[in-house]
Every structure is written in C-alpha cells, then in structure tokens.
Amino acid sequence: MRRFTTPYPNKKKLEEVIMINTIAISGNLAQDLEVRPGKNPNESYVTFSLCIHFFNGEEYVKCIAGGKTADYLIKNAKKGDHVGVTGKIRLNKWTNRNGGEVQELGISVADADWSPKGAVANMQQSQQSQVPQKNYGGQPMQLASSVYRNSAATYQGACKGNQQRQTQHFPYDEHGNFIPPRFEY
Q: Which InterPro entries does the UniProt entry name for this protein (predicted)?
C-alpha cells in the first residue's frame, strides 16, 4: 500500500491519502497454465488467461502468479476450471516482434481459489442423496434442482460463448447500453 502526503491549502498540516490497488475476479481458465522458470532455480511462476463472462460476451484477463499460489494452481487447475483470483492490477509493457511497444493491463495474483470441472454437478448429486431435514415451519425442505444447472459440458464451451446467460436482471437495453436507475423524490 502506497502512502502519499498531500498539502491542503486551507490546512496547516499534511493530510495522508492511502491508495489501494486490489481486484478480485473469477472466471474460467481459457487455456492450460504456462509454467515459467523464476530467477531462482527452485522458483517458478505461472501465467494464464481468465475468461470472464458478461451478459453481452466475454473478456479475457491475463494473470501471473508465483510462490505458493503458483504451486497450488499447478497442482490443481486445468483448462476450463473455474478460478477466482485476488491481486493487484499491473501494467505490463513489452516490445513486440515488429519493434512496437505494447501495454496491457493484467493481474499480479496474490491468492487463488479453484473449483474443478463438474464440481457443481457433483455437489448436486451429493445433496440429492442426503435426507431432507425439517425447517422451522415443520415442512420438509425441497432441494431446488434448477439451481445447479452447470455441468462439465457447460464449462467446456464456456469460453466459446455457448454458455447460457440470463440477462433480465441486468440494467442494460438490447444494444448493451447501461440504463441508469430512476429515483423519484
């Protein structure tokens, strides 16, 4: 966390402003992890792209992870798995083959959570095999089978855009333009 001191014209002392650079996103791995060697022989880091789904398409975000987070992802995550990451936004700069400078926003990952393909389908099967318990009203609880619709087949095509989406709860029109909320006073 960086701290900047900024003088304010109508105050005699300096006030402190704290700048925070933190992001948390989740999406499906667009391809298998690329393992790269680090500066030390025992270290490695991974780069990967997350496919993040929006109501009108997908966005891809490049991520880089090192240390224990990289080891965890190397052991567990594969293409199509759902991964949630927390980290810092960073600006990556490099020169391409044509000699042009390229800049791209990415995420330096500090922490990652992973769930494999079909995890939701497995959860549904295990919940259906459990005996329903009684709630406070005395009626047996019903498991909502429509809640767990994702399956391995859905995840496989997730980054290709054939995942089902429901758009009725988003404040956007049919052209993708944001519709601001109306407040009446």
A: NA-bd_OB-fold (IPR012340), Primosome_PriB/ssb (IPR000424)
The pairing of strands 57-66 and 82-95 is: unpaired
120: tokens are 């939701």
Q: What is the number of structural domains in the chain?
A: 1
Residue count of the chain, please give it.
185
Domain with residue 27: its CATH number is: 2.40.50.140
Q: Is 71 exposed, middle or buried (0-12, 13-18, 19+ CB in 10 A)?
A: middle
Q: Among residues of the chain, what percentage have pLDDT more than 70?
A: 54
pLDDT tens, 1-52?
555 554 555 554 445 556 688 999 999 999 999 999 888 888 889 999 999 9
> Would you give the DSSP letter of residue 40?
S
Q: Residue 179: inside a domain, yes or no? A: no
pTM: 0.55
Position 137 pLDDT exceeds 80: no
Neighbours of 73 (CB within 10 A): 23
What's residue 63's pLDDT?
A: 94
Q: How far apart (Å, rounded) are the C-alpha atoms in residues 134 and 108?
A: 46
Give the C-alpha separation, 147 to 111, whole Å.
28
